[in-house]
């Protein structure tokens, strides 16, 4: 596709429910990033993939958060047993390499009720 | 660890007026600095970046920013605001760590409104 595509755009989850957020990066982009943007805040780094390898997961806030990119293209961010504090916009970005411009998707807005 | 402070969560200007959005950074090593723009319900778009070349960086849509090491600043300016510039602007920093500089640390953002 022309840009980074994220789905769903909006997700409402009941507290305790598991959710899965999908990211389709730009074709051929090796690097993929996930960021969390809480209301009124700047994005915060969650995790980084180079192809299928998760090289940095230092930003994942708890063991309820899990990300994967099994074939080096599409990535899924999974949140187990969602809590209200997980409510945020989750942004995915991809780039040709780790030191090149990152292109961001529109994000998935997660609301936990 | 590096950090970014954006002074002013909301800036309002008149159409045609100068735009000045402030950003100060903290980093123990030479930083890479970025400005991103976010329109409602859209992803972040890179406006410009500083990567240790020229200190005055020109970006898209007529924006520019100047890296001032002595002031640890990277303020964003545009001589004449357009209505279409209304958006949220984020300053971000990354540093070189073992040859990699992929991790962006963002400020909290500045919402720019442009009045007719």
Q: What does the model show?
A:
The complex is a heterodimer of chains A (113) and B (116). Chain A is mainly beta. Chain A contains no helices and 11 strands. Chain A has strands at residues 5-7, 10-13, 19-24, 31-37, 44-50, 53-56, 65-68, 75-79, 88-95, 103-104, 108-112. In chain A, strands 2, 4, 5, 6, 9, 10 and 11 form a 7-stranded mixed beta sheet that branches. Chain A has a 4-stranded antiparallel beta sheet with strand order 1-3-8-7, with no helix packed on it. Chain A is globular. Chain A starts with a strand and ends with a strand. Chain B has strands at 3-5, 10-14, 19-21, 24-26, 31-38, 44-50, 56-58, 64-68, 73-78, 87-95, 105-106, 110-115. Chain B has 116 residues and is mostly beta strands. Chain B is built from no helices and 12 strands. Chain B starts with a strand and ends with a strand. Chains A and B meet through strand 4, strand 5, strand 9 and strand 10 of A and strand 6 and strand 11 of B.
Tell the overall outline of chain B: globular
> Rg of chain B, please?
14 Å
How far do the termini of chain A sit from each other? 33 Å
Q: How do the SSEs of chain B run, as a string of H and E?
A: EEEEEEEEEEEE
